[in-house]
Amino acid sequence: MSESVPIKHPTWLTTGDFTEADEPLRLFAAWFEEAARAEPRDPTAMSLATVDADGLPNVRMVLMKGFDERGFVFYTNVESAKGRELDEREKGALLFHWKSSNRQVRLRGPVERVTDAEADAYFATRPRPAQIGAWASKQSEPLEGRLALEKAVALYTAKFAIGTIPRPPYWTGYRLVPLIMEFWQDRPHRLHDRVEFRREAPTAPWRKTRLYP
Fold this sequence. Notes:
The chain is of the alpha+beta class. The chain has helices spanning 11-15, 24-38, 81-89, 116-123, 128-136, 146-159, and strands at residues 2-3, 45-51, 57-63, 66-68, 71-77, 91-98, 103-113, 171-176, 180-185, 193-198, 207-211. Strands 1, 2, 3, 4, 5, 6, 7, 8, 9, 10 and 11 form an eleven-stranded mixed sheet that branches.
């Protein structure tokens, strides 16, 4: 995971009162840094919500592979259900839930594909079996049995036995550009702290609102 947001320990971070933060990306970076130390499994895990052609919501877990001032990045097969829905609607929502710290972060906004150069660079860092899996899996398509998947893995393992494995043309990354970010901190008696940041466009300034729990 790469992130380019410096954490300079402003007042709200040193005092522990996140409601004093005036910019959401630095706040996210601080919370993510803490989650990376506290979560027993994977702090990059996040729910991704999309909407299908019938307007029916769809949600699944993905892994964040980077964030910076441009947005939050994850990767997938563009021919999967999530890929088709993202390309058709170009909008999505993300949710981080860090149980160890009793925190949530919600993000909503437009979604765009990363550049080919970005996708190539990330694909090259994946373990070789995961690269082969990207070629072997027709993600979200019906699978007649586990044996068919294992045969496809064997086929591509043989095909790419030597040399660098190229990125499949149907596999790339998406970047969610948040227009809304909400930070939620558990408090006793369900009197939680909630702070929402909104902006009209990716280049517009953020507006902060404290919300009732």
